[in-house]
Design goal:
The structure is a single chain. By secondary structure, this protein is mainly α. The chain is about 75% helix and about 0% strand. The protein has four helices and no strands. Helix 3 runs antiparallel to helix 4.
Length: about 100
Amino acid sequence: MMKSQWATGKLISRVRPWGWRRILALALICVMTPACSLNAAQIFIPLAYGSIGMGIALLVSPSLSAAIIGFAMGGIIGAAVYNNSLKSDLRERPDLTPESQPSR
């Protein structure tokens, strides 16, 4: 009677080397996360556009490649919309350059 791959340890040896890499990646993400200044709009605007793009692409052609391309294109458009909203915020702020300050 032949032993299964689990009993011989061949399958286990294929899984174990990747374990420390996953732990290292998770640790790096946890360490670097506080340095990121993210707000909800940065994530949810492109995500919403991406999901709408994916939905439209799946209506046109129900395939995995259409879903991926639709999500990517929608995400790019959403990022452009978010970027454009930042430009309008910058225009509304008062000018704080030294030349605009009243001299004493």
